[in-house]
Amino acid sequence: MPNDAPTAIPYLAHLEAKGFIHRFELAFSSPAPLAYSRKQTDVFIATYKRPVANTLEKLSAKQLLSRITRFVSFKSRTTPECADRPGWTLSRWTSRRQRTLLPTSLRSASSTILPPDTLELDVTDPHVLTTYAGLLLRDLLDQFGGDVERAVGAYNGGPRNPNPQYAAGVQMVASYARNVLERVTAVNERSAKADLAASSQS
Q: How far apart are alpha carbons 63 and 130 in whole angstroms?
């Protein structure tokens, strides 16, 4: 962004109006933190354009879980849909199906793990949401013989009316997530090697 308020303010206001940022404020900065921020931006751009040698398939289960957890946490804090739409509603079919998939012993043990009829994202335990999402998707994959596209479409539209547009959207997001995760992994690997080299020389 140029160091020019008449240009910067309308641009930031446009981003805010579109929902890309929640708010903005202008502040003075000294040269050192500004240089650091610009360096971080350069690293991000270079990393995003760099070809990836190690794909996600080459990561251990522990490494994959760690990176996915950080990515999902980041997206939940920054995606407008997660922050601004607390009133999403589960379909009746989805809610009923999720309840039947939970083992009887767990259903009778506690009502706190039953899926809510309305998804209040700010107050509902994310572990509950994730558990039921996983149970439902696993069941749909079984119903469709492992066909991921049809199962994901049914996750949105139901088994009798799978939503191919939703499935296509999920595929696009999955490709984006893979792109980011693989590049973050590459950056972490280079940082670890650099730290190791620095410690061996000291």
A: 20
As separate numbers, helices (DSSP H) first and strands (DSSP E) second, the chain gives 9, 2
For CA atoms 66, 68, 72, 74, give the dihedral sign.
Answer: positive
How crowded is residue 67: how many other Cβ atoms within 10 Å of its Cβ? 19
* Cα gap 156→158, rounded to integer Å: 6
Please give the C-alpha separations between residue 117 and each of 34, 43, 135, in angstroms, as whole numbers: 47, 44, 16
**Backbone dihedral angles phi then psi of residue 157, each to the nearest 5 degrees:** -100, -10
Per-residue pLDDT reduced to its tens digit, 18-59: 888 888 988 888 899 989 998 988 887 877 777 777 788 888
pLDDT in tens, 142-170: 999 999 999 999 888 888 888 889 889 88
Q: Domain spans of the chain?
A: 1-49, 56-201
| Cα–Cα nearest to 29, from 37, 39, 40 | 37
The Cα 4–Cα 43 span in angstroms is 24
